[in-house]
Structure formats: structure tokens, C-alpha cells
Amino acid sequence: MIIRPAKKSDTKPIARLWLDFVEYHRQFEEATPRVIEGGDERYAMQIRWSIEDDYAQTFVAEHDGEVVGYVYGMVMSLTAEMFVDERAGMVGDIYVIPEFQAQGVGKALMEAMKDWFKLRGVSYYEWYVATENERGIRFWRDAMGGRPFMMRMRAHLDDK
User: Which residues share a beta bridge with 71?
Assistant: First the structure.
């Protein structure tokens, strides 16, 4: 297994994995946004931009020449301007195909991302995980040392 920065030739395979990632999350919450026509191509373009951006990065896990997982992250300020600014990392997406899950691939991808964050002066990083995604929660808690910080909630305007 090789963990490396994404190349432009990886963008379409990553976009295909992203479609699987979105579908995986729809099983937990129907309110997960639906992919528009050409959404995967737009995602591939976002990954392509990250390759040339000093504040965004994508790493891939490659096995026998095939991309089997990826992580996309960026450096940003997560606090409003009235707070002391701290450079933070945001993990946008991480996905490993089922055949390679629970084998340390996700952790290896995140170790690469954490090293990249450190080189950019990041002191902490955050991510979203679906509240019903028990496997994902275990990964973030057990493998990555994550802990709940804030809970994002949602209500539809026509709900009572």
C-alpha cells in the first residue's frame, strides 16, 4: 500500500470513490445532499485544484496501481473574526473502499494529512461524521483520538 499526494491523473478515480462515499452516507441520513448531474466531474475539478493549492491537499492510498482510498483536507480559519485566529485543518472527505477498510488504510491516509497540516502551522483539525455512522465514529475516536466538540443539528422549516 502506497500513501501519496494525489496527481491530476487520480482525479477521476477519486471522483468515483466520492460517489461511493456520498451513497454510503445516504444510508444514514436521507437529508444527505443528492449528487447533481456531473457532480462527480465537479468534484474531480475540486481535487484538481487542491493539487495546485497551498491550503488544500488530497492524499490517495494506492494498491497495485489502483486508488483504493483518499482523504481531502484544507487549512482554514474555523473561528469568526471576533475570536483569536487559529489555523485549523478541516478534513472534508475520507473514504476507503470496503475491501480495504479496517486494515489501517484510513489511519495511514490521516497520518499523511496530519503531517501536511503540521507543516502548515495547524494546531488542530476537525471533521464531520454522521451521527448514525457508528463505524466512522469508532474510527475517529479509537484510531484518531477524536472527541465530540460541537453537535451540528438540523430542522426543516415544515417540521413541528
Answer: 59, 94
What are the extents of the domains in the chain?
2-143
Three-state SS sequence of 31-95: CCCCCCCCHHHHHHHHHHHHHCCCCEEEEEEEECCEEEEEEEEEEEECCCCCCCCCEEEEEEEEE
d(CA 94, CA 136): 10
pLDDT digits (tens, 9 = 90+) for 129-152: 888 889 999 999 999 999 988 888
Q: For the whole prediction, is pTM greater than 0.85?
A: yes
**100 to 66, 69, 90, 112: CA distances (angstroms):** 12, 8, 24, 17
By the 10 Å C-beta count (0-12 exposed, 13-18 middle, 19+ buried), 26 is classed as: middle
For the stretch 87-96, pLDDT in tens is: 899 999 999 9
- CATH fold, domain 2-143, is Aminopeptidase (3.40.630)
Angle between helices 11-26 and 39-51 (to 10 degrees): 130
Q: Whole-angstrom Cα distance, residue 29 to residue 36?
A: 17
Is residue 23 within a helix (H) or strand (E), and if so which, with residue range? Answer: helix 11-26
Mapping DSSP to helix (H, G, I), strand (E, B) and coil, where does residue 140 land? Answer: helix
Give the CA count within 13 Å in the CB-facing half-sphere of 13.
20
